[in-house]
Amino acid sequence: MCDNINNNSAINEVENTGNEIKKECKKEERNKMKIIGLTGGSGAGKGEVCRAFLAKGIDSIDTDKISRDVTRKGSPCLRELVENFSGSILTDYGELDRKKLADIAFSSKENLERLNNITHKHILNECSSWILGMAKANRKAIVIDAPLLFESNFDRTCDIVISVIADLDKRINRIIKRDNISLEQAERRIKNQKTDEFFIQNSNYVVYNNTDYGDVFIQVSNIYRNIFPQEF
């Protein structure tokens, strides 16, 4: 029962913040700014899609980086994590041991959901401030790079959702190289995430990242033309 209450509370908080964002955008009469949600499984290569959008003049915010900021030593978010997952997730210096936390979180869907319920509200607050700042600066669009876009229900705030898909073997190799973890750990991480089919069915656009940046740039360029046809 407690888990359901926490999850419902998290959903309501996201919806309220999303409504606040749209209200503020309208207040500033800059509600034409498009919020693009970018998501996909671990190792899919979302960073290259952000790079391609930046080449088009569209900035992005990385929720993984925000996560590191909100879980810094002494932060309210880190205290909540310790209360729920024990002090074993801390280093000897009182900082978050991300590998230990990941091992616990990805060991079951229940643990992963518990982690998400704790971190989402803190990440959301930081994202919201940035989005409102971009709206007031009269930006035409922004990209929210969020691996957990759907889990956080932040997709409801986005005007457009783009998912990045890549072959399983490529994703595994990227994760192992990036995070310096074992094959078993990489496979377990992917197993606890949403499937490619889910992303395809729940997105406005899909980028397939199996080759190189040049191919990704072409796909993003085509999406850009669809979003902003008036520029062509």
Give me the secondary-structure topology:
Blueprint: H1 2-27, E1 34-40, H2 46-55, E2 60-62, H3 63-70, H4 76-85, H5 98-105, H6 109-136, E3 141-145, E4 160-165, H7 168-179, H8 183-191, H9 196-201, E5 205-208, H10 213-227
Parallel strand pairs: 1-3, 1-4, 2-3, 4-5
What can you see in these coordinates?
The chain is of the alpha/beta class and 232 residues long. The protein has one domain: Rossmann fold, CATH 3.40.50. Helices cover 57% and strands 11% of the residues. It has a 5-stranded parallel beta sheet, with helices on both faces. α3 crosses α6, α4 runs antiparallel to α6 and α7 crosses α8. The termini are far apart. The N terminus is likely disordered.
Count all strands and give the number. Answer: 5
The share of residues in helices is 55-70%
- Beta-strand level of the residues, as a percent range? 5-15%
What value does the Rg take, in angstroms? 18 Å
**CATH fold-level name:** Rossmann fold
Distance from first to last alpha carbon = 53 Å
For the biggest β-sheet, the strand order reads 2-3-1-4-5
Envelope shape: globular
**Backbone structural class:** alpha/beta
Q: List low-confidence stretches.
A: 1-7
Order of secondary-structure elements: HEHEHHHHEEHHHEH
Level-2 CATH architecture: 3-Layer(aba) Sandwich
CATH class, named Alpha Beta
Number of helices: 10
Mean pLDDT across all amino acids: 88
User: Mind telling me the CATH superfamily name?
Assistant: P-loop containing nucleotide triphosphate hydrolases
List the domain count as a whole number: 1
Instruction: Note the main sheet.
Output: 5 strands, parallel
